[in-house]
Amino acid sequence: MDENYHVAPRPWVDSMGAWISLGCALHCAAIPLWFGVLTPLGLGFLIHDQFEKIFLTVSVALALASLSWGYRLHRRWSGFLILASGLSLIVIGRNLVTDEYEVLLVVVGAVFLAGAHILNRYLCHRCQECSH
Predict the structure, then answer these.
(1) Selection from 28, 13, 131, 130 nearest residue 79 by Cα
(2) How many whole angstroms separate alpha carbon 121 and alpha carbon 50?
(3) Dist CA 30 CA 35 (whole Å)
(4) Span between the terminal Cα atoms of the chain, in Å
(5) What is the pLDDT along the chain (132 residues), one digit of tens a residue?
(6) CB-side exposure of 125: number of CA atoms within 13 Å?
(7) Secondary structure of 64-101 in the HEC alphabet?
(8) pTM as predicted
(9) How far is Cα 87 from Cα 68, in angstroms, rounded to an integer?
C-alpha cells in the first residue's frame, strides 16, 4: 500500500456535521416563532443562547475534525475557507449588527458550515475515486 495514501473521513461525519449545521440554521430562523410555543410545552431551554452555543460548538468541532482529516487526503483549503466565512458571518450576526440582520447573517453562516461539510465529503469522494 502506498504510504502517501490516507483514509478519508467517514461520510457519516460530514453528513452529521451538515445536518447539525442545518439544524442550527433552522433553530436560528425559527426562534421568533418558537417563543410562544416552546415555553408552555416545557421546552423553553431550546430558545436559550446556551442551546445555540452547543449547536455551534458541536458543528464547528465536527467541521474542524472532518476538514482536517479530509485535507490529508485531498489537500484543498476551500473547505476551511467556507468554514471561516460561515463563522465570520455568525460572529458578525451575533455581535456587530442590529437585530433585523442578525437572523439572516447567522442562518447564512450556519448554511456555510453545512456547505463546508458537503464540499469536504465531495472532495474526499472524488479523491478516493482517483486513487484507484
Answers:
(1) 13
(2) 29
(3) 9
(4) 12
(5) 444 445 545 667 777 777 777 777 777 777 666 666 666 666 666 666 777 778 778 888 888 888 888 888 778 888 899 999 999 998 999 889 888 888 889 889 988 988 888 888 888 777 665 554
(6) 10
(7) HHHHHHHHHHHCCCHHHHHHHHHHHHHHHHHHCCCHHH
(8) 0.72
(9) 16
Q: Are 38 and 47 in contact (CB under 8 A)?
A: yes
Cell numbers 447564512: residue: 108
Grid cell of 127 as nine digits: 479523491
Q: What is the largest CA-CA distance in the chain?
A: 60
Q: Please state, in angstroms and rounded to a whole number, the distance separating the CA atoms of residues 55 and 113.
A: 12
Whether the Cβ atoms of residue 105 and residue 90 lie closer than 8 Å to each other: yes
Residues 6+ apart with CB under 8 A from 94: 102, 106
